[in-house]
Amino acid sequence: MSLIGTEVLPFKASAYHNGQFIEVSEADFKGKWSVVCFYPADFTFVCPTELGDLQDQYETLKSLGVEVYSVSTDTHFTHKAWHDSSETIGKITYIMIGDPSHTISRNFDVLIEADGLADRGTFIIDPDGVIQTVEINAGGIGRDASTLVSKIKAAQYVRNNPGEVCPAKWQEGGSTLKPSLDLVGKI
Q1: Assuming Cys at both sites, which of 52, 56, 82, 134 could form a disulfide with 42, CB separation 3.0 to 4.6 Å?
Q2: pTM, 2 dp
Q3: Which residue range or ranges hold the Thioredoxin domain (predicted)?
């Protein structure tokens, strides 16, 4: 079953954020746009390249009203240890959620049950707590966080302009479409 258009299921978790342990729940995803980025494990290989890349886009995402959350099945303690020992991870200023109970990973349908690890899943959630985009990659395929900026802008445009849709490769300020009978077969 697709998670698109569904509300984020309830959860409570501990996270590491800017030198502190904090509590996070699905309620934190409401009232603003959110990106939730699942990854398999701390102290690994592809994961730090992705999380560092996400940090490189974090200021741009924040300027669009987006909060970023990374999630793995590690604990918040492990996130702190990784943050303290890795130059790349040490630069991260977004929230790093621990999911040792696997609740969040199951809620987002990214848990690899046999391994107890999460797939590489990226979710864009609107201010109502509803999932608008889902991207799942195999473990060996890293993601490019710059694509999130365009997806967020398109999702925000569609939300703010009912009746309009964004075509492929849409960029802010570009032409949109108004679905109608007149467009059928003409694109």
Answers
A1: 82
A2: 0.94
A3: 2-157
